Amino acid sequence: MAAYYENLGACVPDNLIAGNTIPVLTASATIAAAEGKLVRGTVLASGADGKLKQLATESAGASEVPYGILCDDVDATSEAVAEVYVSGQFNANALVTKAAYKMTAADIKALRDGGIYIENAMGEKEE
What we know:
Layout: E1 17-19, E2 25-31, E3 36-38, E4 43-46, E5 52-54, H1 57-61, E6 65-70, E7 74-76, E8 80-91, H2 105-113, E9 116-119
Parallel strand pairs: 8-9
Antiparallel strand pairs: 1-8, 2-8, 3-7, 4-5, 4-6, 6-8
């Protein structure tokens, strides 16, 4: 008998996107080598060379500017091209930075100036 249905995948909400008032736009960008495996929701900063790195304590000293949020998981052990959110509303509780770095008011302002709005949306219920 023929199979008339097939499970092609699943949509698992991750609470990254916090609203649709601001249009969600993406752009292709180059992630610098040696950044490792990055997950969806990683906040990325742009350096002078135009390549993106995970937002971290070192970002301020390296004059890197918060740029966008990674759309999908990517392996950046070597230089990689990935899609990055450059506009939209995002849940602060779902964002990922390097080594427990806490985003500063200056980081949030730089993202907002670029079109990314950080919201304090509720996450999943903890048990």
